[in-house]
Write a structure and sequence with these properties.
heterodimer; A: about 450 residues; alpha/beta; Four Helix Bundle (Hemerythrin (Met), subunit A); Rossmann fold; 434 Repressor (Amino-terminal Domain); eight-stranded mixed beta sheet; 8 strands; B: about 300 residues
């Protein structure tokens, strides 16, 4: 519903420039939009109230009123304030100077603790750490088996003693084992619990007392609603967690809960889980989350991902080709493969501002990963000459390509035609004209 | 039934405490702008969502302005009625008239699907005397099959399982076949949790549903989405996308024993017309209840 807060604010404040001045009632109208957007994003009501009054003050301040584009200015202020509220720069885990660093994971049932344990293990192992896990969830049926399985997949040792022993003792025992084995990190998985369940909160406090963790992470579901603050406050009071690991960010929840928790407890968000696979855990970036909550896409993440997969020289060469309309189907194939290396297409597109609408349309026309497989097959069935000069492709070549790729002549036709349009659009883009993103999507 | 509702009220009373701070009894005595605003606040804090909240409050306000509702008690009573109306019909029950009746349980990760199936199997067997087969069609999550096995054992239900990583459709197909040949009354299908944004996984779910229909016409007779009461506004989107994939027939609202109020269920009912059929209020086998809109609305606002 609130795909593009910036568009809506643009609209709300569009009349302002012609009048040349932003009045207080203009700002109030803008604040209403922002308030709705934040509530829709599950930011806690009380946080929203305080936040909008602060933002309003800044918006009425100097410079904003008579700026060229007040809508953008307001969005910028909101974005900055959100990012500031979320904790400025991201923070690291506190690692032990000697002996295993103990990381205690806590959270409600179903927030994703067990999976998060394995993901974190894998993440830390990437930095060359020896990571072990200990199964202290003796409550949920088969939780121990689950940790053993995912732990193994993550390449971490898993300490477990079944479900009969006291979790506090299991944790202490495992710490001894990990110390003796020379592990660098021990991650403690615990049973999910309600923050109002006295007995289990007591148990968690006991594990904490006995293992003296260096870091306690609250595992929080990004889809959590207004209750997130109650949960976080209770956990903060009982176990004084150090930071938050945000799960299920690969959904389309805006994740306002993260903001609320930070605002209320002051604890930073350290990690975010962004996919089903074990390596899909990322360091958390507050400023990106601010944009997500506002529905403004996440250019920074996209750029970073793009940098990961392409080298600069290649990029420059490509840009030159695009400008001269020398971009070939071969280049297209390489590009497509590179984009796909960045993750599932929907993830990548979700990171681009203004692509919210385009993504919905794509879902409608069902342009999914398999569609890309077909495109790849078609290009691979072309000769190098055909890839460089698609205009060579006549009727009999089309038939051959369709047969070779297991598709139809129509599909080949369509690809060639769309490629032609895309080449045109990209040349415009390179010359600094921003084409309509939807038009670009159709081109793809 | 009376005891079970007392239990729900007790459970919800924890959440009520927070609300009561917002909705003191004097609120309805003087209905000025501030009172309406406080009412809106309370509903939003319960995750009802901005749009549904505005709808309900606007309707109540109009009736008060028109003079058709007068006095604090009547206003409060009318509010409960309006909320209950939005929450859906009281008689939204799970249809188990077919033999076997196939119930498919879906939802995002971690909402309590497997637990719900365990409790439901126990209820059907213990209270209604039905024979139940659970289908372990979550072949993805590590140890999901073992978890369901533990529940099936507690509930005294049979289990049909495939292998980890196997085809979930085949598991459900086999379970229905087993129910048919053994004359079992109900098949409860557990499915892997999946975020609704993963198109391929949603397609897989639609396929599981088609496979069920192939084995038994009309199956699944019920497709229930499990929504965690702590879920915020994204719950609406979840219900929407799952409904597209498997033609949902209702909602199971779980984890109402915390401080979360589960107001997202109102938004789902209001915007998608999907009724809540069951609620989960604890970790015990007996902690699954039929949904009663009025009781829910009353408990939501507190007494």
């Amino acid at each position: 519903m609130f795909d593009q807060l910036s568009d809506r604010l643009q609209e709300t404040l569009s009349g302002v420039r012609s009048r040349g001045k932003l009045t207080e009632s203009d700002v109030d109208r803008a604040m209403r939009e922002i308030r709705l957007a934040l509530l829709e994003a599950d930011v806690n009501f009380k946080v929203v109230k305080q936040f909008t009054s602060q933002v309003k003050e800044r918006c009425l301040g100097a410079g904003v009123l008579d700026s060229l584009n007040p809508g953008q200015q307001v969005v910028k202020i909101v974005n900055e304030e959100l990012a500031a509220l979320m904790g400025g720069a991201s923070r690291d885990l506190a690692l032990a100077s000697s002996g295993p660093t103990v990381i205690l994971m806590a959270g409600l049932q179903g927030s994703g603790k067990t999976t998060a344990c394995a993901k974190l293990a894998k993440h830390l192992a990437k930095d060359g750490k020896r990571v072990a896990l200990v199964a202290c969830d003796t409550q949920r049926p088969a939780a121990v088996e689950q940790l053993v399985t995912v732990g193994k997949r993550a390449g971490a040792k898993v300490y477990e003693q079944g479900t009969e022993r006291d979790p506090v003792e299991i944790a202490e025992w495992a710490l001894g084992q990990a110390r003796a084995a020379g592990e660098d990190v021990l991650i403690v998985d615990t049973a999910g619990r309600l923050h109002i369940d006295e007995e289990l909160m007591e148990e968690l406090a006991a594990i904490r007392k006995r293992t003296k963790p260096h870091d306690i992470l609250l595992v929080l579901d990004a889809m959590t609603g207004q209750d997130a603050v109650n949960v976080a406050e209770a956990f903060a009071e009982r176990v004084e967690f150090d930071g938050v690991l945000l799960t299920k960010l690969d959904g389309d929840a805006r994740g306002g809960a993260a903001l609320s928790v930070k605002a209320v407890t002051g604890k930073p968000i350290l990690y975010a889980s962004v996919g089903e696979k074990l390596d899909e855990l990322e360091r958390f970036h507050p400023e990106r989350m601010a944009s997500r909550i506002l529905g403004m896409g996440d250019m920074l993440s996209l750029i970073e991902k793009a940098e990961e997969v392409s080298d600069l020289e290649q990029a420059e060469e490509l840009e030159r080709k695009i400008r001269r309309r020398q971009f070939t189907l071969e280049d297209f194939l390489q590009q497509m493969r590179q984009v796909r290396r960045m993750g599932p297409l929907s993830n990548v597109l979700g990171l681009m501002p203004g692509m919210g609408k385009a993504m919905k349309q794509m879902r409608q026309v069902n342009m999914d990963e398999r569609e890309l497989d077909r495109v790849e097959a078609i290009i691979l069935s072309m000769t190098p000459e055909e890839r460089a000069r698609p205009d060579l492709i006549d009727g009999s070549r089309r038939k051959r390509i369709a047969r070779g790729s297991g598709t139809t002549v129509q599909a080949v036709n369509q690809l060639v035609k769309q490629f032609g349009q895309m080449r045109k659009l990209m040349a415009q883009l390179a010359k600094g004209k921003m084409p309509d993103p939807q038009q670009l999507m159709r081109g793809m | 039934m009376a005891t079970s509702w007392r239990r729900l009220r007790e459970t919800l009373s924890k959440s009520r405490r927070a609300l009561q701070a917002e909705l003191s009894s004097s609120l309805f005595e003087q209905l000025d702008d501030e009172a309406w605003e406080r009412l809106e606040e309370a509903l939003i804090l319960a995750d009802v969502g901005a749009r549904t909240t505005a709808d309900v409050v606007r309707r109540l306000e109009a009736e008060v302005d028109a003079g058709s509702v007068r006095g604090a008690d009547a206003v409060r009573e009318r509010l409960v009625e309006l909320l209950a109306e939005v929450a859906g019909p009281d008689d939204a029950r799970i249809d188990l008239s077919s033999r076997p009746a196939v119930v498919m349980v879906v939802g995002v990760n971690g909402t309590g699907k497997t637990t719900t199936i365990g409790k439901l199997a126990w209820h059907l067997r213990d209270e209604l005397g039905l024979s139940v087969i659970v289908a372990a069609a979550d072949t993805y999550r590590a140890a999901a099959i073992e978890q369901l096995e533990a529940w099936a054992e507690r509930a005294g239900a049979e289990i049909v399982r495939g292998s980890p990583g196997g085809d979930p459709g085949a598991v459900l197909f086999d379970a229905i076949a087993a129910a048919q040949s053994r004359g079992a009354d109900v098949v409860l299908a557990d499915t892997a949790g999946r975020l609704h944004t993963h198109t391929n996984l949603m397609e897989e779910l639609a396929k599981v549903r088609r496979v069920a229909a192939k084995r038994l016409e009309g199956a699944p007779h019920e497709s229930l989405i499990v929504i965690d009461a702590t879920t915020g506004q994204n719950g609406l989107r979840q219900a929407q996308v799952f409904a597209e994939a498997v033609d949902l027939t209702g909602v199971v609202l779980t984890k109402l024993d915390g401080t979360a109020k589960g107001g997202i269920a109102l938004a789902i009912a209001s915007e998608l017309g999907l009724p809540v059929k069951l609620i989960g209020i604890g970790e015990g086998l007996e902690d699954l209840r039929p949904f009663d809109a009025r009781e829910f609305a009353t408990a939501l606002l507190g007494e």
